[in-house]
């Protein structure tokens, strides 16, 4: 590419990365607020998480459009093209992470007898870990840092351990309190949504690692 | 583009569409076999569904690579570029549909007391509907048929109705049979996975409709 084209391409990529960082910030806040709303039974906060998910969706559309325009106008080759395609994919995953938080927020009004559920103290801690994964993986993406990407992948095992513990806890709770089964089932889905957020952050971490090093991280990172 | 470039581009796009059709065929089979395995408790069949999901993943990687090559070599503009990007996105969604079936198949060995679960007769019917949506939306994609895409979107309401019915049924079952709560919780996730397959088929249907008509289908289709 000519020099001025290279500069224009770099500016475009910076903008693309900025949009993805913005999506990531919103997705992190959504995880935390969805769980705050869930724990406190704050339906208003839950509704605002649901409403703000549209903003994440709109940013993804913006990423898509910008990526298409970059490809059409700048005709990037090789690594540059792969970078644009990676941005498209990462934006898609962050949008899905937003959907999981929205899904948690939608369940706020479905829980009865909040104070009797021990998982309601575990879920925010699990959410903090999942949110940290999302934060770190986007930092790793911005800094092209494969080491941090591997840390994110290692953290996923902790999120999975939370999930297994909460699952067992809720099943015991159901056995002992049949009247609360419907609420407990909703909390199972909440735990499952957080577990999926961890999986998606891990997927992004693998893409970041691949983009930075040309290879996928070794399997032993995924304990 | 020069004539020979147009022809090469058309051939590439045909190949891209062929790969996506192959992914879709495998995803349909996976839904049906995962539910067969679940209903009969056939762990061997479940394992083969899990193993064959790698084939769907490999096809997605092939779509990604081919799409990047098409963009790099043919430098498609406007509608042609959007078509390639749409193929990338649709392949991503079909891959996710495969993951949901794999997730169902992984739960086959977690169900005890199969013959006492009424939902085990409802889930295959729900799976047939979800599989039909996947089949029809890929037919709509291949034929660029917005009418069929709208039918797929309308079918999603039936899948959601199945989900709600199975959810209520399982919660009642849990209340009446506390000893089976753990198995019932697994079946909740199975129903949820099928419901998500319907959602993803709907997303593809919206993309197909948009690609064919330039507008998203009216909201009343999504009853």
Automatic annotation (TrEMBL), chains A, B:
Location within or outside the cell: Cytoplasm
Record domain PhoU: where: 20-108, 125-208
Top-rank taxon, per record: Bacteria
InterPro entries in the cross-refs: PhoU, PhoU-like_sf, PhoU_dom
Keywords assigned by UniProt, alphabetized: Cytoplasm, Phosphate transport, Transport
SUPFAM superfamilies: PhoU-like
Signal peptide boundaries: none
Function noted in UniProt: Plays a role in the regulation of phosphate uptake.
Subunit structure: Homodimer.
Identification of the protein by name: Phosphate-specific transport system accessory protein PhoU
Native source organism of the sequence: Erythrobacter rubeus
Gene behind this protein: phoU
């Amino acid at each position: 590419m000519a020099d001025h084209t290279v500069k224009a391409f770099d500016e475009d990529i910076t903008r693309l990365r900025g949009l993805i960082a913005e999506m990531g910030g919103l997705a992190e806040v959504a995880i935390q607020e969805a769980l705050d709303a869930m724990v406190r039974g704050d339906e208003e906060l839950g509704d605002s998480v649901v409403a703000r998910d549209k903003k994440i969706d709109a940013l993804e559309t913006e990423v898509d459009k910008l990526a298409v325009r970059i490809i059409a106008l700048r005709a990037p080759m090789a690594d540059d093209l792969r970078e644009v395609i990676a941005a498209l994919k990462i934006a898609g995953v962050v949008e899905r992470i937003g959907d999981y938080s929205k899904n948690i927020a939608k369940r706020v009004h479905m829980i009865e007898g909040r104070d009797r559920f021990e998982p309601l103290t575990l879920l925010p801690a699990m959410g903090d870990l999942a949110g940290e994964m999302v934060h770190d993986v986007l930092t790793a993406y911005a800094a092209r840092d494969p080491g941090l990407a591997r840390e994110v992948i290692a953290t996923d095992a902790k999120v999975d351990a939370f999930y297994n513990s909460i699952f067992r806890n809720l099943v015991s709770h159901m056995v002992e309190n049949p009247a609360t089964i419907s609420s407990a089932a909703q909390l199972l889905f909440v735990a499952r949504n957080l577990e999926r957020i961890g999986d998606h952050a891990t997927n992004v971490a693998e893409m970041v690692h691949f983009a930075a090093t040309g290879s996928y991280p070794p399997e032993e990172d995924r304990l």
